[in-house]
Amino acid sequence: MKSCRDTSVLVSRSLDESLSWTERLQVRVHLLMCSACRNFERQARFLHRACAGLRSGRAPRRQGPR
Question: What is the pLDDT of residues 19-28, one digit of tens each?
Fold first, then answer.
């Protein structure tokens, strides 16, 4: 299993580029077992959408709790 550090790097990379199928699988397996990394992924995706919204002049819409 990937470490939390490795997984957070892959999650961050996935926001800007496509991961290989093995990398996507590694992230999914890790996220199934690690609530801290699930929280990190949720927050990273929110920030990514927020920054994209600022660039386009739109405020991000918050998705409800998961």
Answer: 999 999 999 9
What is the number of alpha carbons within 13 Å of residue 48 lying toward its C-beta?
Answer: 13
Domain boundaries, the chain: 4-56
| Cα–Cα dist 35/9, whole Å | 16
Q: What is the pLDDT of residues 50-66, one digit of tens each?
A: 888 776 666 556 666 65
The answer to pTM > 0.90 is no
* Structure tokens given for 57: 């002049």
User: Diameter of the chain by CA atoms?
Assistant: 40
Half-sphere exposure of 62 (CA within 13 A, CB side): 4
Sign of CA dihedral 34, 31, 18, 16: negative
